[in-house]
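USER: Please consider what follows.
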Amino acid sequence: MLIAGFPAGAFQTNCYVVAPAAGEECVIVDPGQDATDGVDELLREHRLKPVAVLLTHGHLDHVWSVAPVCGARDVPAWIHPDDRHLLSDPAAGWSDTSAQLFGGLTLSEPDDVRELSDGAVLQLAGLELVVDHTPGHTRGSVSFRSPADEIMFSGDLLFAGSIGRSDLPGGDYATILRSLATKCLPLPDDTVVLPGHGPQTTIGRERAVNPYLKEAAPHAGPTRGI
């Protein structure tokens, strides 16, 4: 599998292109602020043809360039329905104070938007990616996994040594702990985590050192009826 990426814009949001190999079709994950030129450069360098854009959630720093990237290549964008409204109303994903920073910014949906669901298996560009609904950072947060390659694109669910914030609209701390418990902790230690911000890590490393995964661990057991 070929995975190439770069941190985009002021938010340093990791944007990835993913393909079976150079010279083949690919998917683009989370084209953030001013990501268009970086995406084009990676596509030229690796001779890739995009067939879709995949969005881990609807926050502005992850979807800023989705409409121009999709429009230039005539490809669909995939997002969970609970975050779809953020494509055209980015301020809804931020606190009132933060939203004022984007008061003059207008975004629009790509022409072709398709909705993700928990457990769906996407067959795109010769790849097989499993969709995990992982709410807590936003209601519609998802991660994408390649079980065959033991790779997880975690968005803002899990970072090296930390997790995504849960204090913005649609976020909830107890919910993100459940997502970590049910979607991250069951994975093999060797699973490579490619997060929305910062360096890559592994599930094993985070299981050992990440305090939030340790806090999530009790939630991973069976639920008792009351």
